[in-house]
Amino acid sequence: MSLSDPIADMLNRVRNAVRIGTERVDCRNSKVCAGIASVLKTEGYIDSFAVIDDGRQGILRLNLRYGKRGEPMFHSLRRSSKPGRRMYSKLHDLPRPLGGLGIAIVSTPKGVLSDRQAREQHVGGELLCMVE
């Protein structure tokens, strides 16, 4: 079975797992999804992630992070660029979710980066998702 939007599938799985309070979630592995997981780990939204070989595409296992009282680390995880409508952003037009408290995840020529990292490296790209 083919999947038309693996990024949206990953974000939905993470959102659903956070809603019910599970410790980990399994997603299909791809380079872009692994890049998103890497940015989420770097920014402190998840504890860790691992790629598990299953003989096919692989599984991306994310260990979710919660606050001291069990509250999720983010309130909103939205897909910005979609297969039917791609959204690109120049360096100076990159959004600042929640006035800089959230992050925007951007696919750039230098890899998948957060908006802060993209500003530091002076690159723009496709706006994948927003974490608030």
Task: Give a verbal description of the structure.
- It is a single chain.
- Helix content is 25%, strand content 30%.
- The longest helix has 15 residues, at 6-20.
- Strand 2 (46-52) and strand 3 (59-64) form a beta hairpin.
- It has 132 residues and is an alpha+beta fold.
Q: What's the number of extended β-strand segments?
A: 8
Structural class category? alpha+beta
Largest sheet: 5 strands, antiparallel
- What is the helix content? 25-40%
pLDDT averaged residue by residue? 96
CA-CA gap between termini:
32 Å
Query: What form results from the Cα inertia axes?
Result: globular
Helix count from the secondary structure assignment: 3
Report Rg. 14 Å
- SS strand fraction: 25-35%
Task: Set out the fold topology.
Layout: H1 6-20, E1 24-28, H2 31-42, E2 46-52, E3 59-64, E4 77-79, E5 88-89, E6 103-108, E7 111-114, H3 115-120, E8 125-131
Antiparallel strand pairs: 1-3, 2-3, 4-8, 5-8, 6-7, 6-8
Question: Nutshell version of this structure?
Answer:
The protein is α+β, with helices and mostly antiparallel strands and 132 residues long.
List keywords for this structure.
3 helices, 3-stranded antiparallel β-sheet, alpha+beta, 8 strands, 132 residues, 5-stranded antiparallel β-sheet, 30% strand
